[in-house]
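Thread title: Can someone regenerate the structure for this chain?

I was given the following input by a collaborator and told the matching structure tokens would be attached. They weren't. Posting the sequence so someone can regenerate them.
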Amino acid sequence: MTAAPIRVLLADADPLQREGWRLVLDAQDDLEVVAEAPDGVQALALLRRVPVDVAVVDARMPRLGGVQVTETVATDARIRLLQRSPVTRVVLVTATDLDRFAGPGRAAGADAVLYKDADPADLCAAIRDAAAFRTIPAS
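Best answer:
Regenerated them for you:
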């Protein structure tokens, strides 16, 4: 019997970015993209309806940024009740200013903070580590 795949939500305003991540993650046997959102408000709406183990969230999104999404994920009762694990884990990503988002992202509860152009293996590892409740240093 194999373990259930890690269910992933992708949240980024750029559809090409989400598609690139989806291609990388769908090639992994243990990762499954179950939802996508173009902004933080829609990401939270999906998290209240779709069971997700790890959310990959852009730090800079329209309507609601990734740090705010991360804070809400940790405290929203409807999200906590729906999820298989105690709480959905978050991997925060940014195109620039990693130093600007690493501290606030970690304080909000992000398990990892990565550049968007991180090596695909690093993104997959960050998702797996987050699902296993292991935090990793910002990179």
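The CA atoms of residues 10 and 98 lie 19 Å apart.
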